[in-house]
Every structure is written in C-alpha cells, then in structure tokens.
Design brief:
Shape: elongated
Distance between the termini: 60 Å
Structural class: mainly alpha
Number of strands: 2
Number of helices: 4
Helix content: over 70%
Radius of gyration: 19 Å
Oligomer: single chain
Strand content: under 5%
C-alpha cells in the first residue's frame, strides 16, 4: 500500500514539474493569458447584460430563418464553457500525450486561443446585436 502511495506521489510531482516547464514556454503563457482574459471578460460582459437580454437570442445561425435560430440566453454561457473546456483539455493532452512534441503543444494552445477569441467575439457580437 505504501508503495502505491509513493508511486502516486512521484507521478504527481512529475506532472507538476512538467506543468511548471510548460508554463515557462512563452507561447503557452501568452495563449493561456489571452484565453483566460477572453473567457473572463466575456463572462463579465454577459453577466452584466444578462438582465437586458430578450427571452430568445439568435444563436443557431446554421438553421433556417425564423424561430429555429433562436435559443434561450443561458446558452451563451455554454459557448464560454466550451472555450474554457477546450483550453483545459489541451492542457491535459499536452501534459500526458504530447509531452515530447513541443511544436504540437504550441499548435494546440494557439488553436485553443484562436477558438476562445472567436467564440468570445461571437458572444459579444450577439449581446450587442440584441441589446
């Protein structure tokens, strides 16, 4: 039992060391700060404007014209959650599977940041369109 606990503690220390090494990478640092700023900033704007939103907002632009495009305003939080989830999924993938491939890690975080910025821009555009 003690051997299992010691192995688990060593694995946690190794992951912490890997994450510390990852944080020193300038691409990760810029991408992480940009993603966090986009998610937090959009969340603040969404929360501030939530009371002035109509009962249905245009969200599903791939649907045909009319009521099929409309959704309840709480779905806008789902867009923010998906951006944050993608970023944390990229952190897990980079710490476990892609540890030896630095260029793929950087590409993951660049794509994650671009997705987060585009989703934040889309949510803000919807907010200012309907209010």
């Amino acid at each position: 039992m003690i051997h299992i606990i010691a192995r688990t503690a060593a694995a946690i220390r190794n992951q912490k060391h890997t994450y510390t090494t990852l944080r020193k990478n300038w691409v990760y640092a810029v991408c992480a700060r940009s993603t966090y700023a986009a998610c937090i900033g959009t969340g603040i704007i969404l929360t501030a404007k939530y009371s002035s939103l109509p009962p249905l907002v245009p969200l599903w632009y791939s649907k045909m014209w009319g009521e099929a495009r409309l959704a309840e305003p709480f779905w806008l939080y789902g867009i923010l959650f998906s951006a944050c989830f993608l970023h944390f999924l990229n952190i897990i993938l980079s710490l476990t599977l892609l540890k030896p491939y630095r260029i793929f890690i950087q590409l993951l975080f660049l794509s994650s940041t671009s997705v987060a910025l585009l989703l934040s821009f889309s949510v803000i555009k919807i907010l200012f369109l309907v209010t």
